[in-house]
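Consider the tokenized backbone below.
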């Protein structure tokens, strides 16, 4: 009976999540301390909200966002230029058998969350929400028959 190595139905393992979080902390520390000498990186404050690891822990996809979300393309280009240096720094901080190769991507989740928030604030959705709340408020005031 063969055992499936990666089950697509279940999420990442606890080890994959833990290593991803360790890599995220290491990247954030490296970028915060300015250990990568690059003019573009030195002039930007960069947030690393998430790092996703491959199941074999050989590839890390780091989602980054510059402060204010501006100048994402030059920051991503600078990170890609310095990928080897960053990988070496991460390897020194994290005790793994293999240092993961790091890919940098722009984190669009903040934009998506803002879009969803704006949709929820539209009059069509907002009107339905207030109607439901008004009905439940009437029930709470004792206006219903017992």
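A designed sequence for it:
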């Amino acid at each position: 009976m063969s055992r499936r190595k990666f089950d697509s139905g279940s999420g990442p393992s606890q080890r994959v999540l833990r290593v991803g979080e360790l890599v995220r902390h290491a990247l954030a520390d490296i970028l915060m301390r300015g250990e990568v000498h690059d003019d573009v990186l030195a002039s930007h404050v960069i947030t690393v909200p998430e790092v996703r690891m491959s199941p074999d822990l050989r590839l890390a996809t780091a989602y980054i966002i510059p402060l204010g979300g501006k100048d994402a393309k030059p920051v991503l280009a600078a990170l890609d230029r310095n990928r080897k240096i960053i990988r070496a720094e991460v390897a020194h901080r994290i005790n793994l058998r293999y240092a993961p190769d790091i890919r940098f991507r722009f984190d669009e989740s903040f934009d998506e969350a803002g879009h969803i928030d704006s949709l929820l604030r539209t009059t069509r959705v907002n009107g339905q929400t207030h109607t439901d709340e008004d009905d439940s408020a009437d029930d709470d005031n004792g206006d219903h028959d017992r």
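Helices lie at 14-33, 39-42, 72-81, 83-93, 109-120, 123-140.
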